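Workshop exercise sheet. Pairs work together: one partner reads the sequence aloud, the other fills in the structure field after running the prediction. Swap roles for the next sheet.
Pair: D.N. / O.F.
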Amino acid sequence: MKTDDIDTATPEQLAPVLFAALQRLGQLGRTGAVALAALVDDEDADFEEAASWVGDIAAGDLRE
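Structure field:
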């Protein structure tokens, strides 16, 4: 998937890309986290919402 396609991607199309990207960031450790943090605006409500959902998933709290 190209980044230009993200705005129109369905959840089913986007989830595997996000999953792979998060795994790779995890492999990169702090360096990956710092690179992501450099992109995040403190006032980005959409990012905050997504981060909350990812946190729920990581905690095992979100299932269908």
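Discussion prompt: Residues 21 and 34 are 14 Å apart (CA to CA). What would you look at next?
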